[in-house]
Fold Peptidase.
Amino acid sequence: MTSIEQINAIGVAGQPWGAPEKARWQALQQVQRSYADEVVTRVQALAGKWQVQCYGQLDYGDGQYRLLALRSQPWRQDLPVALVTGGVHGYETSGVHGALQFVEQHGDEYAGKYNLLVLPCISPWGYERIQRWNALTVDPNRSFVADSPAPEAAAAMTLLASIAEPVRVHIDLHETTDSDESEFRPALAARDGKPFVAGSIPDGFYLVGESEKPQPGFQQAIIAAVAAVTHIAPADENGEIIGDKVVAHGVINYPCRSIGLCAGMTDAPFVTTTEVYPDSPKATAQQCNAAQVAAVRAALDYALAHA
């Protein structure tokens, strides 16, 4: 990962980065793991039982990537869509592997109930470099907007726009990590020429609902399922998680669509974003993946029961 010292050495403090500074940041990013070996091979292993769709191609010069989706086979016009997205932030590992583990272990359980559409790794460049941004220093999870500056987000939105069946539920799998505070928030401040304001990282799992359609029963059903796997983040002394008011145990709300989050890209009535905490001494990588799987299953089951 990029250190604060390396970030602070880019450009002039208090001035937003231009093209030279962004290129310098990109040059610091090194491949640390393989999208082909760790993601593509697992997706391709499901071909036959599932339809594997290439919905886009990224070419960043230092890396070319096929964007892959898994679709129910057969795809039925009489069924609603359940959308699972992971790896919008490539460094958030359990989002990617939790999405794949869900398909591998439980996808068949929803045959005849949903058209499942799973995008396990929306940002493969970031996955390989364990980075929040893409190669353009753009956060894909603020880019699900018209004329998106992130080709990863644009490709996902184009895919969803091509699907006629209604999306009933969308669960977007994320993590909150210690590196958010040690690297990614300082990088954001430096890129935008703003002072860095220190925050805190909650210890535990939490959800981010859509403030325009909060669905409190839906959110709490997911929290209850995940609590059997890993611990839920408590509110801080201000009754907040990452600076936002807790509206129920382990739940905060954002205006997802208006700020360009992945969770806002459909009209699904049931929407949430998971946030796993992989750096907790009370959680293992396996628990983090299992928490994502539990969250997906609870979300899909609740949306079926409350159609």
